[in-house]
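Recap from last week: sequence in, structure out.
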Amino acid sequence: METPGSQSSLHRANLERVVRAVRMAGSLTQAEIARSTGLSAATVSNIVRELKDGGTVEVTPTSAGGRRARSVSLSGDAGIVVGVDFGHTHLRVAVGNLAHQVLAEESEPLDVDASSSQGLDRAEQLVSRLIAATGLRQDKVVGVGLGVPAPIDVETGTLGSTAILPGWAGTNPRDDLAQRLGVPVHVDNDANLGALGELVWGSGRGVADLAYIKVADGVGAGLVISGQIYRGPGGTAGEIGHITLDESGPVCRCGNRGCLETFTAARYVLPLLYSSHGMDLTVERMVQLAREGDPGCRRVIADVGRHIGSGVANLCNLINPSRMVLGGQLAEAGELVLAPIRESVARYAIPSAARQLSVMPGALGGRAEVLGALALVLSEMGDSTLLDGAAGAAGTAGPGGAPGPTGGVPAGAPALS
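Predicted C-alpha cells:
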C-alpha cells in the first residue's frame, strides 16, 4: 500500500505523467516529454528505460532540430482502439493502435435514420471484420469511441432529440454497443468528435480555442475552450444550427422559424438548384460544379457561407475563438465558401474578435469524426493497465490516473495515416 507523498507514490505519479503524455501525443522525444511533463531530463530518461524494460513503450532513433534523438511511443502490442462514426448516410469505422497509427479503416453506405438496432448491427459486423483484418485479437481492444449525428446526454449516454434521429429516440447507443462488443464505449456527437479530430491531428493543432463547424444534413459546432471540448451541462452546447436568422423564415425541424440550418443544411439548400441541375444533385456535385465555374452553384455556396458567417460572428462575440474550422463536404469548396464566411464575420462580429479569428477548412475531410472517435478513447482511457508491467518491475502498485473528459491539446501529435 502506497502512502501519499511517499517515494513510491511519487514514482508512480511520474510514471503516469510520462505514459499519459506519450498516449495523448502518439510519440514524443524524451526532450518533448520533459517539456510537457515538467520532469527533469534525467528523470524522464530513467522512467523511459523502466517503461521500455516493462514492455509499455518502444524507443526508436529519430532526429529533432538536426540532432539525434529518441522517439518514445506506446508498445505496438499494448492495445488497440476503435472509432465508429455514424453519419446520416454512412457508417465509418477505424481501428488504431496506441501509437496513433490507423491499422484499418472502412466506410460503407448506411441509412442511419432507419433504426439504432440495424445501425449497431452493421457497426458490430464492421468492427469485427476490421479487427480481423489487422491480424490482432479482439481482446486487445481497450475501448471504442462512438459518434452519432445527434445531441447526447453526457450523464446517461442517451440521445436527446427525437427530431434528428427518429429511429434512435430514447436509445442508449453507448451501452448497446458496449454490450455487443464487451468493451468500454465512449460516445459523443459528430461535431464534437470532428472538433477533437481536427484539434489533435488537423487544422486545430496548437490552438486552445476553436470552433469546428460541420455542415451536412444538419449544422452543428464542436467548441473547444482552453483546449477542452465544451459540451455544456446537458451535452447540447454547439447547436449553432438553431441560431435564429429570420424569425419569419422557413420552419425548422426543431419547430422554430428561420434557424441557421434552414439556410445552410443540404436538405434546404440543394432544392434551390433542382430545377436547373436535376433532382439527383448532391453537395459533392454542387461543390464540384461551383469549382468549375457554374454560376448557380457558386451563388448558392456563397449565400451559405454568408449565413454560416453570421452564426460564427455570434460565436466570436460570445466565446472569442481564435480559429474556425469548416468541416463536411462543403469545406471542399475552399475560398468559394470561406471568403463569404470571413466577410460576414467582419461585418457582424466585434472588430477585435473578428481580427483574432482565422477561418480555414478542415484538414481531415470526411475522416475527422472517426479519427476524433479514436482520440476520444485515447483521452478517456486510464493508465493502470498500461503501467502493470512497469509497476511490477518497480515494485509499486496503485490506481492509474486518467485525464479529463477530452484531454488537452497534445504537443507534437503526428498525423494519423
